[in-house]
C-alpha cells in the first residue's frame, strides 16, 4: 500500500518525502489534481502562474504532530471581465482558503468545541498535541440557522455575555427545549424588531423585565404573556416569607396561648425558623448584642453611639425594644403588593 493511500485516501496529493523527528512528523506533498476553476467567474484554469508551499497542520500520526508542506498551484484567470487576475487551487478534503489546519483536523476540533466548549476543549487538545487555543475552538462553532417563524411558545430571558457588564437576550423554544436565537442586547427595540421579522409566537414566557413586556405589546399584541416557572415560584416564596416574618409577634402570641391552654408533648421539635437574608434584619441581629453588651458594662448612650458610629436615637431604640419587635418593625413598613387583601391585621 502506498503512503498516499494511508495519509491522503482519495485526495489529489502525492507524497514526495517524509521526515520523522522526536518532535513530530513532516510530509512534503504537491497537489496533482485537475486544474480548478476561478472562484469568481468559474472560468477553468489553463495557464499556471506559479507554485508555492503551504504549511498545514494535520491530525496526529502515531501520537506525534503531523505537518504537511503542501505545494499548490496558482493559475491565471483568462476571462477579461473578471476582476481576479490569479487564483490558487484548493485540494479537496485537505486544504481550505485562509486556514492553516486541514479539513479533517478542523472537523476534529469543531466536534471538541461543540461538546466541551473553550477551556475544557483546549485542555483536551493538549493530550493528542493538537495546536489550538480556546478562542480558536470557539471560533469554529457555527451558528444554527434561525427559523423564519417564531416557535409557538417562545421563552425570553436575559443572557450575560460578561456578567455585570454586558448582557444580551436569549430566545428559547420552550416546547422543543432548544435555543432559537441570541440577541446582542436586552433592549425593547431589538426584541420588537425580531418579533416583527419572525411572527408566529402565540405564548411568550418571560421574566419581570419591562423592556420585554413593552416589545411584546408593540410587535406581537396578540401573543399571551406568562411568567416563567422560576420567577413565579421565587416571587411566591418571597411574598410568603415576608408576610410570615411581618406577623411574627402575633404568631408567637398565638403559639404561647395554645401552649398554655393545652400543653402537648412534642416528639420531634422543629428547628427555629431562619431569618431571610434581608440586609436590615441581618444588621439588626448584629447590632442588638453589641449595644446590650456595652450597656451591661455601664457605658452611656452617647459613648455607645460614638463607639459603634450610630445615632443616639438608634441606640436608645435598641435599648428599650426587644429583638422580636425590632425584627417585626423592620418588615412592617414594606408594601405587601398583590398580597395585601389577604394579609391579616397586625395585633
Low-confidence stretches: none
Straight-line distance between termini:
95 Å
Helix/strand order, N-terminal first: HEEEEEHHHEEEHEHEHHHHHH
Q: Count the beta strands.
A: 10
Q: Give a short account of the largest sheet.
A: 5 strands, mixed
Average pLDDT:
83
Helix content: 25-40%
**What structural class is derived from the secondary structure elements?**
alpha/beta
What would you report as the Rg, rounded to the nearest angstrom?
35 Å
Q: Tell me which oligomeric state these chains represent.
A: single chain
User: What global shape is seen?
Assistant: elongated
Descriptive keywords:
about 350 residues, alpha/beta, 5-stranded mixed β-sheet, 12 helices, about 20% strand, elongated
Structure characterization notes:
Helix 10 crosses helix 11 (312-320). By secondary structure, this protein is an alpha/beta fold. It has helices at 3-7, 103-116, 119-125, 134-139, 188-197, 210-219, 229-246, 248-261, 279-296, 301-308, 312-320, 323-332, and strands at 17-20, 25-30, 48-61, 64-76, 86-88, 153-162, 166-173, 178-183, 203-206, 224-227. The protein is built from 12 helices and 10 strands. The strands form 2 sheets. Strands 1, 2, 3, 4 and 5 form a 5-stranded mixed sheet that branches. A 5-stranded mixed sheet has the order 8-7-6-9-10. The protein is elongated and about 105 Å long. The relative contact order is 0.06. The longest helix has 18 residues, at 229-246.
Q: SSE layout and pairings?
A:
Elements (H helix, E strand, L loop, with lengths): L2 H5 L9 E4 L4 E6 L17 E14 L2 E13 L9 E3 L14 H14 L2 H7 L8 H6 L13 E10 L3 E8 L4 E6 L4 H10 L5 E4 L3 H10 L4 E4 L1 H18 L1 H14 L17 H18 L4 H8 L3 H9 L2 H10 L15
Parallel strand pairs: 2-4, 6-9, 9-10
Antiparallel strand pairs: 1-2, 3-4, 4-5, 6-7, 7-8
Amino acid at each position: 500500500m502506498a503512503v498516499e493511500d494511508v495519509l491522503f485516501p482519495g485526495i489529489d496529493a502525492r507524497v514526495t518525502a517524509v521526515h520523522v523527528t522526536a518532535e513530530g512528523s513532516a510530509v512534503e506533498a504537491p497537489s496533482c489534481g485537475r486544474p480548478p476553476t476561478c472562484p469568481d467567474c468559474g472560468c477553468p484554469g489553463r495557464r499556471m502562474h506559479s507554485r508555492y508551499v503551504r504549511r498545514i497542520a494535520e491530525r496526529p500520526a502515531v501520537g506525534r504532530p503531523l505537518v504537511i508542506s503542501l505545494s499548490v498551484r496558482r493559475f491565471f484567470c483568462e476571462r477579461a471581465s473578471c476582476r481576479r487576475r490569479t487564483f490558487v487551487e484548493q485540494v479537496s478534503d485537505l486544504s481550505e482558503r485562509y486556514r492553516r489546519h486541514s479539513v479533517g483536523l478542523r472537523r476534529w476540533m469543531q466536534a471538541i468545541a461543540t461538546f466541551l466548549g473553550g477551556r475544557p476543549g483546549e485542555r483536551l487538545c493538549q493530550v493528542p498535541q493538537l495546536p489550538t487555543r480556546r478562542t480558536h475552538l470557539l471560533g469554529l462553532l457555527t451558528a444554527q440557522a434561525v427559523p423564519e417563524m417564531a416557535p409557538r411558545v417562545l421563552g425570553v430571558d436575559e443572557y450575560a455575555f460578561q456578567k455585570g457588564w454586558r448582557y444580551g437576550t436569549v430566545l428559547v423554544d420552550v416546547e422543543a427545549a432548544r435555543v432559537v436565537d441570541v440577541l446582542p442586547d436586552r433592549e425593547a427595540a431589538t426584541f420588537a424588531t425580531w418579533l416583527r421579522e419572525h411572527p408566529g409566537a402565540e405564548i411568550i414566557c418571560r421574566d419581570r423585565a419591562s423592556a420585554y413586556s413593552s416589545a411584546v405589546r408593540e410587535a406581537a399584541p396578540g401573543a399571551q404573556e406568562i411568567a416563567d416557572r422560576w420567577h413565579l415560584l421565587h416571587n411566591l416564596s418571597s411574598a410568603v416569607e415576608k408576610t410570615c416574618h411581618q406577623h411574627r409577634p402575633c404568631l408567637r402570641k398565638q403559639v404561647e396561648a395554645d401552649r398554655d391552654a393545652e400543653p402537648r408533648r412534642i416528639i420531634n421539635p422543629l428547628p427555629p425558623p431562619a431569618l431571610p437574608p434581608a440586609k436590615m434584619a441581618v444588621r439588626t441581629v448584629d447590632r442588638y448584642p453589641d449595644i446590650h453588651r456595652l450597656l451591661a458594662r455601664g457605658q452611656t448612650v452617647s459613648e455607645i453611639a460614638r463607639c459603634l458610629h450610630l445615632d443616639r436615637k438608634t441606640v436608645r431604640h435598641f435599648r428599650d425594644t426587644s429583638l422580636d419587635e425590632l425584627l417585626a418593625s423592620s418588615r412592617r413598613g414594606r408594601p405587601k403588593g398583590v398580597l395585601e387583601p389577604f394579609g391579616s391585621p397586625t395585633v
